[in-house]
Write a structure and sequence with these properties.
Rossmann fold, binds iron/sulfur cluster, single chain, alpha/beta, 5-stranded parallel sheet, 353 residues, globular
Length: 353
C-alpha cells in the first residue's frame, strides 16, 4: 500500500524524495534492481543486474542493514537467503511474483524426483533455475543439486553431468532444452516432465536431461515468424534472444544469451547497427535509449507485468517505512528452507566463480 499523499506528488517530487531517503539511510541501505524494472525505479538503484549478478551483490552487501530488492519475489527470497541474519530484505511490492517460478512446487517436484530416482537410482542430479521458489531451491539443495541462472546454466549443467548420468531441470522447459542442445545433447535424449500429467517414467529411460514443463509467458510469446519478420524489415540486423525463448526462435537468432549477454551484444555492435532483441521490453527500451548511435528494437514488444508492478512510489514508501523504523514488506524465509536453498545457491556460486 503506498501512501495516498504520494499520488499527489509529481514524478519529480517522488524522485527527489527517494534520493533524500537514500541520503538519510546512507550506507545502511543498498537498493538492488533487476534489468526488467521500470526506468523510474532502476535509476535509483545502487546496483542493477541479472539474477546471477544480483545474487552475488546480495551476498556481498554486508555493510547494508537494509537491502531493498526491486524485482520479483524469488529474487528477494534469494537475497534473504544469502544475506546475514542481522540484515533485512524488503521487497517494495510483495505481490510481484514470477509466474514461471509458480509452476514448480515441492509436492510436484518430489513426485518427479521419486519417479526418476526409481528409474536411475542416485545417478541423477536436480538443477533448478534461479527463477524458482525458495522451497524448490531447498529441495534441490537437499538432494545434491544446485541453482543456475541463464548466465551460468551451461556450466552448472556440465557440473551436474560430471556428478551423474542424468539431470532433472526445473522449472523452464525452454531454457533447459536450449542449454542441453547447445551442449550437444541430442533432442531424443531430452525429455519433458509434465507436472500436470506425469509421464510414464519408463518413457524417459533413454533421456539424459529431463526438463520441467514450465515456461516464461514473456519469452514464449516470441516466435519464429517474429524473427522472419524482423529480418525482412531490418536486413542485416543482428538478432539476439534470451534462452527462455522456444528453441525454434533461438535456432533462428544470431545469438542467444542471458540478459548480461544481451547487453554485451548491444554494446559490442558497431555504431549504425540494428539489433533486434528478443527479451523483456523494459530492458530493450532502456538499451535503445542508452545506445542512440544504434537502432535497438524489440523482437516483440512484451513486458513482464509483475516485473513492472514496482513503481517509484512503492520504492519511496519502502524507504520511508525503513526510516520510520517500521520496515514494510520484509521478505523472510524459514531457517530450514533457507539452509538448504543456500546450499544449492552456494554450489552455483562456487561452480560459476
Ligand atoms: S520475465 Fe518471465 S521469467 Fe522473468 S519474472 Fe517475468 S515471467 Fe518470470
Amino acid at each position: 500500500m503506498i501512501r495516498e499523499s504520494y499520488r499527489e506528488m509529481t514524478d519529480v517530487q517522488v524522485a527527489e524524495a527517494i534520493e533524500a531517503a537514500r541520503r538519510t539511510l546512507g550506507n545502511d541501505l543498498t537498493i538492488l534492481g533487476h534489468h526488467y524494472q521500470r526506468d523510474d525505479v532502476i535509476r535509483h538503484t545502487d546496483f542493477r543486474g541479472d539474477s546471477l549478478e544480483l545474487s552475488r551483490q546480495a551476498a556481498e552487501a554486508r555493510d547494508a542493514r537494509y537491502i531493498v530488492f526491486c524485482g520479483v519475489h524469488f529474487m528477494a527470497e534469494t537475497a534473504a537467503i544469502l544475506c546475514a541474519p542481522e540484515q533485512t530484505v524488503v521487497q517494495p511490492v510483495l505481490e510481484a511474483l514470477c509466474p514461471m517460478a509458480a509452476l514448480a512446487n515441492v509436492p510436484d517436484t518430489a513426485a518427479a524426483w521419486e519417479a526418476l530416482t526409481a528409474l536411475w537410482g542416485d545417478d541423477v542430479t536436480p538443477i533448478t533455475y534461479q527463477n524458482s521458489v525458495a522451497a524448490v531451491k531447498a529441495f534441490v539443495g537437499q538432494h545434491g543439486g544446485a541453482v543456475c541462472t541463464s548466465s551460468n546454466a551451461a556450466r552448472i549443467f556440465r557440473w551436474g553431468l560430471e556428478r551423474s548420468g542424468h539431470l532433472l531441470f526445473l522449472p523452464d522447459e525452454h531454457l533447459g532444452t536450449n542449454i542441453a542442445l547447445a551442449m550437444g545433447i541430442p533432442p531424443e535424449e531430452i525429455g519433458v516432465w509434465d507436472y500436470a500429467d506425469a509421464p510414464d517414467p519408463a518413457s524417459l529411460a533413454h533421456c539424459r536431461v529431463v526438463v520441467w514443463k514450465g515456461y516464461c509467458y514473456v519469452h514464449t510469446t516470441m516466435t519464429a515468424e517474429d524473427v522472419a519478420r524482423a529480418r525482412a524489415q531490418y536486413p542485416g540486423a543482428i538478432v539476439v534472444v534470451h534462452p527462455e525463448c522456444p528453441h525454434e526462435v533461438v535456432a533462428l537468432a544470431d545469438q542467444a544469451g542471458s540478459t548480461r549477454a544481451i547487453i554485451e551484444a548491444v554494446e559490442a555492435a558497431p555504431a549504425g547497427a540494428t539489433i533486434v532483441v528478443g527479451t523483456e521490453w523494459h530492458l530493450v527500451n532502456r538499451l535503445a535509449h542508452e545506445h542512440p548511435d544504434k537502432r535497438v528494437v524489440p523482437l516483440r514488444r512484451v513486458g513482464c507485468k509483475t516485473m513492472g508492478m514496482t513503481s517509484a512510489r512503492d520504492l519511496l514508501y519502502a524507504l520511508e517505512a525503513i526510516i520510520a523504523g517500521t520496515p514494510q514488506n520484509v521478505v523472510r524465509v524459514d531457517a530450514d528452507t533457507a539452509h538448504w536453498a543456500r546450499v544449492a545457491l552456494e554450489r552455483m556460486l562456487e561452480a560459476s566463480a
